[in-house]
């Protein structure tokens, strides 16, 4: 059975003190995750080591980074490599978030390189895809997302794909308060799974966790997570508030 995951994407928020407080508040709630459920906290780079030390004894809780470099090592000032992330105990890395694509010009081809390096260093990529509003309005979102999958993931082997999580994040729903309806999320998730099945076979598709992201919150998480092809969420704003993040995790069922 595929994993159900709630991943918090903190983006560029919080100081170290606030980060520690948030993790402690979440852990102290003493949530017991069910088999096959995972929680990921994707913190800013400077907090990874501290976060690892806080999270490491809690079963089901994993550490994530929000990006990693498209090159292995060397003269790339300001970049952080997949190998470095692995060496500090990172488990997951968010790749291809729409903010990275938009503000840092990350292309599908660049992301394919990042995915390869992440996997080569034992990290599990959370690969983000999703369409902008004008694409949704033109009703060409399926073609748009299919191309993102094809250009960044389809060079992988079936074995490699086992370590990839996909996050569907319609850009028009990120941080806007607009959420895709459960039906819109389910339609796209089913489409993504069908694409994976066409390329890698049904078993591989059934094994792949596909998360929804975009203004997910306690009030809508239950309906979203109840969709048969929605395997959890990638949570931005609500992951910064312990009570909200905990409530969303509990909606995994
Ligand atoms: P949001 O962000 O939950 O604040 O909309 C989600 C994301 O960008 O991953």
TrEMBL record:
InterPro entries: Aldolase_TIM (IPR013785), TIM_sf (IPR035990), TrioseP_Isoase_bac/euk (IPR022896), Triosephosphate_isomerase (IPR000652), Triosephosphate_isomerase_AS (IPR020861). It catalyses: D-glyceraldehyde 3-phosphate = dihydroxyacetone phosphate. It is found in: Cytoplasm. It holds the Pfam family TIM. One of its GO terms (molecular function) is triose-phosphate isomerase activity. The active site is at 97 (electrophile), 169 (proton acceptor). Pathway: Carbohydrate degradation; glycolysis; D-glyceraldehyde 3-phosphate from glycerone phosphate: step 1/1; Carbohydrate biosynthesis; gluconeogenesis. Substrate binds at residues 9-11, 175, 215, 236-237. Keywords: Cytoplasm, Gluconeogenesis, Glycolysis, Isomerase. HAMAP family: TIM_B. Belongs to the triosephosphate isomerase family. This is Triosephosphate isomerase. It comes from Chitinophaga ginsengisoli. The gene is tpiA.
């Amino acid at each position: 059975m595929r994993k159900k995951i709630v991943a918090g994407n903190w983006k560029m928020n919080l100081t170290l003190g606030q980060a520690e407080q948030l993790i402690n508040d979440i852990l102290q709630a003493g949530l017991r995750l069910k088999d096959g459920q995972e929680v990921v906290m994707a913190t800013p780079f400077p907090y990874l080591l501290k976060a690892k030390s806080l999270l490491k004894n809690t079963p089901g809780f994993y550490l994530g980074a929000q990006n990693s470099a498209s090159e292995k090592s060397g003269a790339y000032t300001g970049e952080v490599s997949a190998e470095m992330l692995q060496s500090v105990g990172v488990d997951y890395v968010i790749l291809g978030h729409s903010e990275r694509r938009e503000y840092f010009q990350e292309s599908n081809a660049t992301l394919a390189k990042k995915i390869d390096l992440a996997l080569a260093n034992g990290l599990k990529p959370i690969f983000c895809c999703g369409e902008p509003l004008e694409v949704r309005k033109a009703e060409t979102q399926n073609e748009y997302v299919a191309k993102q999958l094809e250009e960044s993931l389809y060079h992988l082997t079936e074995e490699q794909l086992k370590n990839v999580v996909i996050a569907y994040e319609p850009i028009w729903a990120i941080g806007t308060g607009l959420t895709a309806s459960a039906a819109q999320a389910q339609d796209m998730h089913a489409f993504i799974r069908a694409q994976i099945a066409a390329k890698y076979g049904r078993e591989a598709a059934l094994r792949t966790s596909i998360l929804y992201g975009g203004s997910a919150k306690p009030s809508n998480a239950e309906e979203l997570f109840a969709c048969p092809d929605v395997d959890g969420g990638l949570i931005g704003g609500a992951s910064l508030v312990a009570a909200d993040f905990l409530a969303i995790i509990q909606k995994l069922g």
